[in-house]
Structure formats: structure tokens, C-alpha cells
Amino acid sequence: MPDTEKKQRPVTSVTDNEALEFHAMGRPGKLEINATKPMATQRDLSLAYSPGVAVPVKAIAADPATAYDYTTRGNMVAVISNGTAILGLGNLGALASKPVMEGKSVLFKRFADVDSIDLEVDTENVDEFINCVRFLGPSFGGINLEDIKAPDCFIIEQRLRELMDIPVFHDDQHGTAIIAAAGLINALELTGRDLKTTKLVCNGAGAAAIACVELIKAMGFAPENITLCDTKGVIYQGRTEGMNQWKSAHAVKTKARTLEEAMKGADVVFGLSQKGAFSEKMIRSMADRPVIFAMANPDPEITPEEVARIRDDAIMATGRSDYPNQVNNVLGFPYIFRGALDVRATTINDAMKIAAVQALANLAREDVPDDVVAAYQGNRPRFGAQYIIPVPFDPRLISAIPVAVAQAAIDSGVARKPISDMAAYARELSARRDPIASTLASLYERVRRRPKRVVFAEAEEEQVMRAAMSYANQELGTAILLGREDLIRQTAERAGIDLNRPGLEIVNARISTRVEAYTDYLYARLQRKGYLHRDAQRLIHNDRNHFAACMVALGDADGMVTGITRNYSTALEDVRRCIDMKPGHRVIGVSIALCRGRTVFVADTAVHDMPNAEELADIAVEAAGFARRMGYQPRVAMLAYSTFGHPSGERSERVREAVKILDKRRLDFEYDGEMAADVALNRKVMEQYPFCRLSGPANVLVMPAFHSASISTKMLQELGGSTVIGPILVGLDKAVQITSMGAKDSDIVNMAAIAAYTAGS
Ligand SMILES: NC(=O)C1=CN([C@@H]2O[C@H](COP(=O)(O)OP(=O)(O)OC[C@H]3O[C@@H](n4cnc5c(N)ncnc54)[C@H](OP(=O)(O)O)[C@@H]3O)[C@@H](O)[C@H]2O)C=CC1
Ligand SMILES: CC(=O)C(=O)O
Ligand SMILES: [Mg+2]
């Protein structure tokens, strides 16, 4: 495969089954509502509901602006659709649009901490739709219209903007236009073109297309250089079929009648239409160094692979997250609303949109600072054909875009609550985002760049098989399925998995040619520990963990994942018989707990039952090193039930001793203790101890013993709604990860990716 084509291949793909299982697992759908106030006691109820609730009611009645102080309004956006243009899938109805709308809601939360709810309105009647939405104003700080077909969407948005005093923003129009315009500015710069003379064809003349064309004309694009096409072909002056006033406004004088004719010699083409609308012939006929934005979702008008087969001089972008250059409104709507909400803007006007375009375009040209390299596929992206627009996981977006939008709202007089200290606002915005998702994304990306062979030791189990397939699908490397071939094939059939796909390899321990080598290796390690040669042989023959660990030890695999069928400590013992500790290190388990936008590393959650002071100090060092490798500045709290000596007791003494041991080592990370968990995690409580050496709440928690580590992480998971990844084994000489028994396929693939990642470091 040519290099250019390889570069363009999607880096992840998911199967239909995976997508359905993802949506169905646990509580169906993608979001739920949580209370932000305690609801435990009679008093709580009296405050939250009657009689207490009457007080804010009266306050809001007297002064409506106080709704922003006493209700969710100021941070709450409605994502509203009638499902008449769901992505590029067409009119599939309000109910079918719900997964996309839930998706937009969670993206609001994930990327910009905007709370949002999806509302699917079951009517295609424009007036009914407008009437439904116009009365919802008091509930929300903003309205994000989504996937409503043209031309209805133009009328709906226009009327609602007039009727409502909060921002109404049709994302498919303006979100798309903002991102496409930012990408276009950069693509023109890279290909040495001038906005005023560039020739652009836009296929599609609906919501997204009309808005894109309007915005780039407002930015200086010559109207006569833009040719719009729809299902009937070119929109030329005088055309009558399939027209409306929005299309007519962009009709041009031209002899071209078909898309194919229009695209001859074009510099730029926008696809905002449907899968497969661009043929290879059309792409071949474009000017040198063409700019191709094939933005239809989920499948573009032409794929990057197809373009790469035809020519190697194109700048190519799609709407998908699995190719380079994702021109998708996800880069816009969360941040644009963030900025608009924070200044309580009455609308999102052109000045705010253009500010967002500039901020986005500039961000892609800036040097990427070290602390965000992690979000860019593990190495430093540089402004160029493969990088014309920031990636959605860029942690700078959250401060750059809302600041620009908020400033433009203030300058253009639509901000009801101007911000005076923009630098402080930018800092506050950065603090709203937790880096873990970008860290995990970058971890996956790094593995993709250096794919690894990971052995899945329990491949006869269905969820392991699914995880292995996902590992291969995501192009993380080769998944080696260890087990009896007949059983593996049966499991694969049951799970609907095609074992002939690239990236899957079956190894049957019983007939492997490596049995002898592994047996000799294991015997050499165990002969002075009471094992006979035949004991070693039996372990290799009969036990998958020993076989897999020997594969890794002797370099036949880069990493290993196990744990589904055997308890953690047994699996660890199996592995330790075959693999040593890294010299100078200690083997520990670190769990990553993701909890309400915060990430904490908890150690030791796997190995040391009741660590002594020396061991606790080592655990702190290992855990801090791991947190750093994951992109965090470690702040380590040595936890106990007491804080700085009170109340005293033997168990806390051990932790105090560990801190003294750490004091004697020359360490390059912050640590302190002993302290209770609330002191470690709550800035206000920590302030009661002004001598505490931590500069902020801890992000690495060293537990006094295994039981407290295990109990607290499991409680976080079960009661606190946290996602817990791990325990991740740290300190082994080879890359082995052990999942918990009964782990889900998604947990297993995370562990396999972590094994692959550590195999490379
Ligand atoms: N990457 C991104 O961020 C975004 C991408 N999009 C994508 O853009 C596309 C359009 O969405 P949207 O504008 O909301 O939908 P609309 O329904 O408003 O518009 C669709 C337009 O596409 C035209 N069209 C459909 N099929 C073809 C075809 N084969 N050739 C030429 N024109 C065609 C229609 O023509 P006619 O008028 O004749 O019916 C219509 O003008 C979708 O694929 C969507 O996923 C949308 C928003 C954001
Ligand atoms: C991305 C998006 O909003 C769409 O394709 O409709
Ligand atoms: Mg959309």
C-alpha cells in the first residue's frame, strides 16, 4: 500500500454490534441526570422542595435574572431536533434522531462542561415546531437546533431567534460553517491560494452547505467563484426545478450543469451531501493541490483512501474522527455555547462566529506546547496538509474558543454579564477539563503508531475474544488468541467474529513449537524452588498464564492480558513465576479513578497487603512515576485515618515514617502526609493546614494498606459513579496486565492497550 494511502486509513473502526452494545450496556442510552444538592434529609427536602423552593421562586418572579443564580438555566442547553436530516442519513424521524441528540448532549458536557438535554420534537410542520420550542425559553440558557432539513431549518432558526432572548443556534448550519471556514483558511494558506480568486464547488445546498457558503462569502470569497450543486445538479441562474429562495441567493451564471462539469479545474470542493457523491473522475479533474472537504456523515462523499489512490497532492478532510483533519461541528458547538453562556449572551451573532473561526484557525498554526502533545497522536503535529485544524481532544480548545466568543459577544454588545478579567476566565476554563480522556486517547494513538503483539491469554472466553477483535480493529497491533483452536473458533462463531481478518492470530499451546523453549526457560527459573522439569512442562502445557507470560518473556509477544477466569493474586503469581520485577523498582497496582471530571491515581490496589514504611515510600515513588507517564504532575498524598499526627495511632505512625523516608530521598514530585482523604482531596479542608507541602488537591493517593485501597476504589465505583481503570500493574520487567474477574470487553481492551503502551516505554 502506498504511504499516502496508508496515512489516510481510518485509525479506528467499530462494528455495528459494538455500536449497539455500547448504546445498550448498563443503563440504555448515553446520559442520566444527577442531583447537585444533597437530597438525604427532611431538611434537604424542605430546602429543595416545599417550602424552601418558594423563596427562589419569588426571587425569580421579582427579578428574572436571578434564575441564573438559583437554577440550572445558565449552564443548560437544549439539543432539539425533529430528525428530518439525521447526519447524512436523511429524514428518519424524531425518535431515530435521539442517539445523535444524546450524543451531542454528552459532547457538550465532555468538552465544555455544558449541561444539556436532548429533546426530539415529533413534527415536520414548521409552525408546530417553532411553537413547541419558543415556549421552552425559561428552561434553558441556549437552544442548539440539530439535524433539521433545509429549507425548514432556515425558517425555524430565523423565527426562533426573533422570538427568544437566548442564543438559538442551528449547529448544522453555523457550527459546520465555522469549522469548515477555519479549515479552509488554513488549507488556502498551505496551498498558496488567495480567498478572492479561489474557485470552490459545494455539493449539497441544504442547511450546512448554505451556511458554509454564506460565511465564506462574508469572509471575502468572491460569490461568482462558488458553484453550488444539489441532487438536480448545478444551481445556475435561471434554474427553476428544486429551487428555494436560499438556493437562488447563490445561483451563478455558468454553463456547467452537473457536479462533474462544475468540478473540472475547481480548487476546493465541499461535500455536504451524501456518501459517495464524489467520483474518482471528478477528483482527478480538479486543479493542482486541490482542497477536498468531504464532510457527509457518517460516510464521506469520497474516502481519503480513494483520493489517495488517485492523487497525492490533495489536502483532504472529512467529518469523521477516525481520519486526520476532522472538519466536524464538534470542534465548535460546545465551546461556542460555553463562551455565550458565560457572558449570558442574548444571541450568537456573526462577530462571535467569526471570532471562533479565527481562534480555531490560529490554534492549528500555533506551536503545540509540550503538555498538549499527548493529545496529538503521541508526537508533535505540525501545521500542514495532515493537520489543518485542531483535533477535538485538544485541551487548548476549551480556553481558546470560549474566550474569543465571549470577548466578541462583549464587544458586539450582546453580553448581559460581561467578563472583566479574560485571563482569569481562560484559567478557569482550563481547570474545567480533565486531561484523562486526552491522555487515554494519546495512549491509544501512540500504540497505533507502534503497534504491538499482545497475547490474550483467555481467548476462549467471549468477552476476551471481542476485546481482541476490538484491539485488532483499532489497529493497535496483533491480538494473539491463546487457547484451543476448536474452542476459539466456536467462541468466534458465537460472537459473530471473523477470525480471518488481519490482526488476529491463534496460538494453541498444546501444539506450539515453542513449548520446549518455554519449558526450559521456566525450569531454569524454578528448579531451585522445588519444581521438576515435568512440573514446568505441565505448567506450560496446561496453564495459559504461564504460556502467555513465557511468550512475553522470550519476545514472542510484546505484552499480555489475562484475569477473566482466575482471581487477581493467582494470576499475578502465575505471571511472577515467569517474569521479574524491573531492576530498582517495586511491583504495585495503580488504579485510575475518574470521578466527576477529576482523575486520581490510587495505589497500591493490587500487590502489598500491609506495606511497611519503606514499602509505602516505594509505592509512592512508583505511583508518582506512573501518574507522570500518564501526563500528570503528581501530587502525592500519603493517606491515613489521621491528619498530621491527630489522632495518633500505630497505623498512622507507619505512614508518617514513610513520609520521613521519602524526605531522605531526592524526589522530584510533591508529597505529604499523613493525611485523611478529605484533607487530600478538598482544597478548603487542606487550607486548614497551611504548612501542607502540596500545592493543591492530591492526584495520587497512596493508601495505607491493600484493604483500604481496594475498598475505597470499589466504593467509588459502586456508589460514587466513578469509572475505575485498573489496577494497572506497574514495575514488572515485561508488559503484563491483569483485569478483574468478569471484566467487560471494553475494560479488557483498555488493559491490552495499556500493556502495549508500557511495552514500548
Ligand atoms: N461534518 C460536519 O460537521 C457536518 C456534516 N454534515 C453533513 O452534511 C450533509 C447534509 O446535511 P444537512 O445540510 O444538515 O442536510 P439537508 O437535508 O439540509 O441538506 C442536504 C442537501 O444535500 C443535497 N444532497 C443530498 N444528496 C445529494 C447528492 N447525492 N448530490 C448532491 N446533493 C445532494 C440535498 O439536495 P436537494 O436540495 O436537492 O434535496 C440538500 O441540498 C449530511 O451528510 C451531514 O452529515 C452536516 C452538518 C455538519
Ligand atoms: C456532524 C453533524 O452534525 C452532522 O453530520 O449532521
Ligand atoms: Mg448534525
UniProtKB/TrEMBL annotation:
<dbReference type="GO" id="GO:0046872">
    <property type="term" value="F:metal ion binding"/>
</dbReference>
<dbReference type="InterPro" id="IPR042112">
    <property type="entry name" value="P_AcTrfase_dom2"/>
</dbReference>
<dbReference type="InterPro" id="IPR002505">
    <property type="entry name" value="PTA_PTB"/>
</dbReference>
<dbReference type="InterPro" id="IPR012301">
    <property type="entry name" value="Malic_N_dom"/>
</dbReference>
<dbReference type="GO" id="GO:0006108">
    <property type="term" value="P:malate metabolic process"/>
</dbReference>
<comment type="subunit">
    <text>Homooctamer.</text>
</comment>
<dbReference type="Pfam" id="PF01515">
    <property type="entry name" value="PTA_PTB"/>
</dbReference>
<dbReference type="InterPro" id="IPR046346">
    <property type="entry name" value="Aminoacid_DH-like_N_sf"/>
</dbReference>
<dbReference type="InterPro" id="IPR015884">
    <property type="entry name" value="Malic_enzyme_CS"/>
</dbReference>
<feature type="binding site">
    <location>
        <begin position="86"/>
        <end position="93"/>
    </location>
    <ligand>
        <name>NADP(+)</name>
    </ligand>
</feature>
<feature type="binding site">
    <location>
        <position position="297"/>
    </location>
    <ligand>
        <name>a divalent metal cation</name>
    </ligand>
</feature>
<feature type="active site" description="Proton acceptor">
    <location>
        <position position="104"/>
    </location>
</feature>
<dbReference type="GO" id="GO:0051287">
    <property type="term" value="F:NAD binding"/>
</dbReference>
<feature type="binding site">
    <location>
        <position position="147"/>
    </location>
    <ligand>
        <name>a divalent metal cation</name>
    </ligand>
</feature>
<dbReference type="Pfam" id="PF03949">
    <property type="entry name" value="Malic_M"/>
</dbReference>
<dbReference type="Pfam" id="PF00390">
    <property type="entry name" value="malic"/>
</dbReference>
<dbReference type="InterPro" id="IPR037062">
    <property type="entry name" value="Malic_N_dom_sf"/>
</dbReference>
<dbReference type="InterPro" id="IPR042113">
    <property type="entry name" value="P_AcTrfase_dom1"/>
</dbReference>
<comment type="similarity">
    <text>In the N-terminal section; belongs to the malic enzymes family.</text>
</comment>
<protein>
    <submittedName>
        <fullName>NADP-dependent malic enzyme</fullName>
    </submittedName>
</protein>
<dbReference type="InterPro" id="IPR012188">
    <property type="entry name" value="ME_PTA"/>
</dbReference>
<dbReference type="InterPro" id="IPR012302">
    <property type="entry name" value="Malic_NAD-bd"/>
</dbReference>
<keyword id="KW-0479">Metal-binding</keyword>
<feature type="binding site">
    <location>
        <position position="146"/>
    </location>
    <ligand>
        <name>a divalent metal cation</name>
    </ligand>
</feature>
<dbReference type="InterPro" id="IPR051674">
    <property type="entry name" value="Malate_Decarboxylase"/>
</dbReference>
<feature type="binding site">
    <location>
        <position position="172"/>
    </location>
    <ligand>
        <name>a divalent metal cation</name>
    </ligand>
</feature>
<dbReference type="InterPro" id="IPR036291">
    <property type="entry name" value="NAD(P)-bd_dom_sf"/>
</dbReference>
<dbReference type="GO" id="GO:0004470">
    <property type="term" value="F:malic enzyme activity"/>
</dbReference>
<keyword id="KW-0560">Oxidoreductase</keyword>
<dbReference type="GO" id="GO:0016746">
    <property type="term" value="F:acyltransferase activity"/>
</dbReference>
<keyword id="KW-0521">NADP</keyword>
<keyword id="KW-0511">Multifunctional enzyme</keyword>
<dbReference type="GO" id="GO:0016616">
    <property type="term" value="F:oxidoreductase activity, acting on the CH-OH group of donors, NAD or NADP as acceptor"/>
</dbReference>
<dbReference type="InterPro" id="IPR045213">
    <property type="entry name" value="Malic_NAD-bd_bact_type"/>
</dbReference>
<comment type="similarity">
    <text>In the C-terminal section; belongs to the phosphate acetyltransferase and butyryltransferase family.</text>
</comment>
<feature type="domain" description="Malic enzyme N-terminal">
    <location>
        <begin position="28"/>
        <end position="161"/>
    </location>
</feature>
<feature type="domain" description="Malic enzyme NAD-binding">
    <location>
        <begin position="173"/>
        <end position="410"/>
    </location>
</feature>
